[in-house]
Amino acid sequence: MSTPISSVFDLEARARKRLPAVIFDYVHGGAGMELTLQRNQDDLCALALRQHDMRDVSHRQMSVKMVGEPATIPLAIGPTGLAGLTWANGEVEAAKAAEHFGVPFCLSTMSICSIEDVADATSRPFWFQLYLMKEHKVNESLIRRAHEAGCSALILTLDLHVQGKRWADARNGLSVPPRLTLHNTWDILSHPRWLVGMARSKRRTFGNLQGELKQAKNLSALTQWIESQFDPSFDLDTVKWVRKIWDRKLILKGIMHVDDARLAVDIGADAIIVSNHGGRQLDGAPSSISVLPEIVEAVGDRIEVFFDGGIRTGGDIVKAMGYGARACLSGRAWLYGLAAEGMDGVLCALHLLEQELSDCMALTGLDDVAHIDPGVVTAQPALRPPGRPGSGGPSPELRSAYR
Ligand SMILES: Cc1cc2nc3c(=O)[nH]c(=O)nc-3n(C[C@H](O)[C@H](O)[C@H](O)COP(=O)(O)O)c2cc1C
Predict the structure, then answer these.
(1) Which of 119, 264, 280, 379 could cross-link to 269 by cystine, CB 3.0-4.6 Å?
(2) Greater confidence, 135 or 74?
(3) Catalytic residue among 136, 183, 277, 351
(4) Where are the domains of the chain?
(5) What is the DSSP string of 219-262?
(6) Which of 8, 45, 77, 80 has most ligand 1 atoms within 8 Å of CB, for mutation?
């Protein structure tokens, strides 16, 4: 790497430089006015960590188990669609980084590399994330393929039965492959490193779904079919059906309500992820950190509670665990690393988070992540004015019009 990288934000800056805007905005942005996206980070920032001294913290134990799976630090690589458009064979590179570092990796239904590509390139069992499609035979087929590939857990995402509107993506004409307008063409041509990388990539379409739909003769037919497949009718019975046919660990993702958390326990899920999809679905939803304590209070003694939304530093992991999460998942932090430097970039993101977690534990007087408790965090007034610089979302004029 040319210039030193000292935080995930440096990886973000590098990703912004390397990617065409249409791809960077897809990774970086959120739904609507990006209120929830902002809240995720602002509310984590507003929690303060209690410094605690005069304890021997020369050895810090940071490993945990997530649904029985060992994790070197309390973090898993969360599912993100189209990661393989940020770097050639991106999901395979990220899975290899996760295996090397020792954290679980979850492959998205909407990945570019397929379940089988990742299974062939790795030896550690990975997790598969499922979006339920209207066509049940596709769901069945994906579940069967994940089982055959040895996936040890299925993450069922509950919060994408309709797709959140991301204004930047609509403005940019994001599609697979990106729609070529004059502006996009110029944008893409002015990022030759990315373009050359993509030319080397094994796949450039939805690797898991490509073979599922025989009648989709070309990429745009496949994209249209996928867009028509998100299923607003799926309900508790559908989730029970998944529980019945998937006999390994089941994790429900997108839990933001205590009632939903209780249902997850009732149907026999092994874990839940408190998540608002990184602010990409219901704009105006609360931050995931703000609802975490009530969900942990309601079900934390009966099911593993994981957290995502806004994790950018090791301190954020401590805060989420202080609020009761057993472990966290990361979306954008590892994606920025992948987009910046491929497998090395994902490893860099993981090492940065590990080092920050270790330092944060030392300064808060903790020698074991198992000892992180609510006493380590305290609420403080927000630090920053709202509004993320350089966001791909609403323009400043639009933002101020709404204030
Ligand atoms: C570019 C992008 C694509 C995503 N795709 C998926 C997906 O395919 N399935 C899913 O369950 N969640 C998806 N998510 C949500 C993430 O799994 C995770 O919930 C979210 O990114 C956490 O917030 P963070 O990015 O602040 O860490 C995606 C997130 C991003 C940023």
Answers:
(1) 264
(2) 74
(3) 277
(4) 8-402
(5) HHHHHHHHHTTB-TT--HHHHHHHHHH--SEEEEEEE-SHHHHH
(6) 80
CB 110, CB 206: distance < 8 Å: yes
Give the pLDDT confidence score for residue 182 in this predicted structure: 80
Nearest CA to ligand 1 atom 28: 80
Cβ of 82: how many Cβ atoms within 10 Å? Answer: 19
Question: Given a cut of 90, is residue 239 above it in pLDDT?
Answer: yes
Give helix 332-363 / helix 8-18 axis angle, nearest 10°. 160
Q: Which of 122, 126, 160 is nearest to 146 (CA)?
A: 126
Residues 6+ apart with CB under 8 A from 294: 258
Spatial neighbors of 184 by CB under 8 A, at least 6 apart, are 20, 22, 172, 173, 178
Taking Cα atoms as reference points, which of 57, 32, 37, 52 lies closest to residue 170? Answer: 32
Secondary element (H or E) of residue 52: none
Query: How much of the chain, in percent, has pLDDT values that exceed 70?
Result: 91
| Torsions phi, psi for 271 (to 5 deg) | -155, 160
Taking phi over 0 as left and psi of -120 to 50 as alpha, with beta for the rest, 175 belongs to beta
Superfamily of domain 8-402: Aldolase class I (3.20.20.70)
Say if CB 17 and CB 339 are below 8 A apart.
no
Q: Dump pLDDT digits (tens) for 168-220.
A: 888 888 766 666 778 888 888 999 999 999 999 999 889 999 888 776 666 67
Looking from the CA of residue 333, the nearest atom of ligand 1 is 27
- 277 catalytic residue (yes or no): yes
Residue 270, pLDDT > 50, answer yes
Coil, strand, or helix at residue 19? coil
Residue with CA nearest ligand 1 atom 2: 80
Q: What is the pLDDT of residues 321-348, one digit of tens each?
A: 999 999 999 999 999 999 999 999 999 9
Tokens of 252: 């429900």
- Structure token digits, residue 91: 């999901």
Q: Is the CB of residue 277 below 6 angstroms from any atom belonging to ligand 1? A: yes
